[in-house]
């Protein structure tokens, strides 16, 4: 076993509580705190108490006067509920995007528009997307996938209205962005009353937000590196509701989701 030198030893739950008390956190119920830190990692909670911390005269971490464990727990619970609400909203957008992408392309180019490389700008991106889609199709145990593999085994990929149900949210923005004709993207974006460039940007951003939510990452007080292009004219009456100062924050995301 490799031994790595590190200056900070692990602390027991009681030692963690003592450290928090020493730094000025109010913990009226030690048993409750023990239960909490047994089931929620100290460093997971730390993200929620950072705004209440400062450096004291000796340069050590300390809590601002009046900071309680309950205040921190309220933030933690708020973030958990926010993640669940976002997952619900993003699911609706994802399902709608799949449907609009498939329906729009199928009506214009036929049931196998997605395997026509001439409809896409970059062949390498298209090849990667179709390869990923093929893997999902071959390993899917969904009834519709098994039906098409059994009855249409000469097809490497199913029709687009089947293929769209095998796409993850992270795949959708690449399919959208790689469409050669902006008019094809705009027909999809029209269903959301958005400019096609905003839709592509928003979809990229949503895939990052959804991944954070799905992997139990903190959403509250986070600045996302994958920012979205803010709408300027459409949807009507909503463009002025976005705050450029909060670019990358979840508030703008929720405004557009609403």
Backbone structural class: mainly alpha
Report on the biggest sheet: 2 strands, antiparallel
Total strand segments: 2
Strand content: under 5%
Rg, alpha carbons: 24 Å
Distance between the termini: 52 Å
The H-and-E topology, N to C, reads as HHHEEHHHHHHHH
Q: Write out the strand line-up for the largest beta sheet, numbering strands in chain order.
A: 1-2
Spans of at least 5 consecutive residues with low confidence? none
Number of helices: 11
Q: Which term fits the overall shape? A: elongated
In short:
55% of the residues lie in helices and 2% in strands. The chain is an all-alpha fold and 258 residues long. Strand 1 (53-55) and strand 2 form a beta hairpin.
Structure description:
The protein is mainly alpha-helical. Helices cover 55% and strands 2% of the residues. The protein has helices at residues 13-22, 30-39, 42-49, 69-109, 123-139, 143-151, 160-163, 172-177, 182-190, 196-214, 250-257; strands at residues 53-55, 61-63. Strands 1-2 form a two-stranded antiparallel ribbon. A hairpin with a 5-residue loop joins strand 1 and strand 2 (61-63). Helix 1 packs across helix 2 (30-39), helix 4 (69-109) crosses helix 9 and helix 4 packs across helix 10 (196-214). The longest helix is centred in the middle third of the chain and has 41 residues, at 69-109. It is elongated. The mean pLDDT is 92.
């Amino acid at each position: 076993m490799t031994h790595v030198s590190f200056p900070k030893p692990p602390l027991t739950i009681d030692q963690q509580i003592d450290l928090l008390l020493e730094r000025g956190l109010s913990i009226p119920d030690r048993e409750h705190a023990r239960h909490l830190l047994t089931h929620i990692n100290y460093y997971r909670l730390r993200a929620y108490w950072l705004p209440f911390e400062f450096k004291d005269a000796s340069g050590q971490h300390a809590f601002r006067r009046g900071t309680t464990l309950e205040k921190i727990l309220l933030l933690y619970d708020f973030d958990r509920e926010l993640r669940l609400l976002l997952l619900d909203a993003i699911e609706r957008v994802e399902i709608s995007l799949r449907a609009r992408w498939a329906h729009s392309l199928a009506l214009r180019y036929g049931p196998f528009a997605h395997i026509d490389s001439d409809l896409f700008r970059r062949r390498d991106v298209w090849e990667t997307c179709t390869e990923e889609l093929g893997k999902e199709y071959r390993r899917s145990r969904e009834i519709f996938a098994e039906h098409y593999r059994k009855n249409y085994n000469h097809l490497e990929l199913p029709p687009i209205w089947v293929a769209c149900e095998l796409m993850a949210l992270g795949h959708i923005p690449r399919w959208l962005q790689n469409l050669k004709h902006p008019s094809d993207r705009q027909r999809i974006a029209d269903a959301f009353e958005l400019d096609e460039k905003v839709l592509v940007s928003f979809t990229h951003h949503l895939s990052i937000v959804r991944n954070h939510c799905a992997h139990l990452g903190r959403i509250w007080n986070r600045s996302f590196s994958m920012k979205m292009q803010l709408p300027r004219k459409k949807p009507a009456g909503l463009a002025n509701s976005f705050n450029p100062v909060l670019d990358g924050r979840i508030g703008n995301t929720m405004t557009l989701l609403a």
